[in-house]
């Protein structure tokens, strides 16, 4: 059996270890306790985009009727390809290509030099209506309503923590702020985190992003125009 004195020493050592961990190397912000899904799918939205590769040519088929083709450059390698619901996208070493139901051709966006050096580090997320690409320096969105790219630079001192997506909304958490974006929106909406504010959880629903911190509740809704604080 452990004596009362031994138990006292053990307790003291454990508490000292906790205090030391808190003082050294503690992250000011942390990701949610769960790992969010990399894609969201609703069984009620039929797939309307198909992407096929024929030799060095990408062929996008929209709603089984309209076909759009684009040639890859010599030696251009595909890193990721995905379709879901009303959108589809391809990530290569040099660029991002996307299609939606309103497309009349491929929407193309070139990667920057520091992004194309490490395209495998780019995080692609896709839902029934949105495509999101997250790099170290940019957040890039494409949706089925506008069929155009939306971009947001990541501030130079921010670090990407996590990314979330649902059918009509998406959010990217950095070490100092939260960026949210909705279907049909022309830009990302920024919400700064306060000094030493800690994110407790992030919850996404088809039209809503909810972020709980140790100080407040933040809500972003598609069509709502921005963040609301409670």
Labels describing this entry:
230 residues, mainly beta, four-stranded antiparallel β-sheet, 2 helices
What does this structure look like?
The protein is mainly β and 230 residues long. The protein has one domain (33-229). The protein is 10% helix and 45% strand. It has helices spanning 4-23, 113-116; strands at residues 49-54, 57-62, 66-71, 78-84, 87-92, 95-100, 107-110, 123-126, 130-134, 138-143, 149-153, 160-165, 169-174, 177-182, 189-192, 199-205, 208-213, 217-221, 227-229. The longest helix is centred in the N-terminal third of the chain and has 20 residues, at 4-23. It is globular. The chain starts with a helix and ends with a strand.
Q: In brief, what are we looking at here?
A:
With 230 residues, the protein is mainly β.
* Tally of DSSP helical segments: 2
| Secondary-structure element pattern, one letter each | HEEEEEEEHEEEEEEEEEEEE
Radius of gyration (Å) = 22 Å
What is the makeup of the main sheet? 4 strands, antiparallel
Q: Enumerate the strands of the largest sheet in spatial order, edge to edge or round the barrel.
A: 4-5-6-7
The average pLDDT is: 84
Structural class: mainly beta
Low-pLDDT segments: 1-39
Which of globular, elongated, flat, extended, rod-shaped describes the shape? globular
CA-CA gap between termini: 52 Å
State the share of residues found in helices, binned by percent: 10-25%
Question: How many distinct folded domains?
Answer: 1
Instruction: Tally the beta strands.
Output: 19
Strand content: over 45%
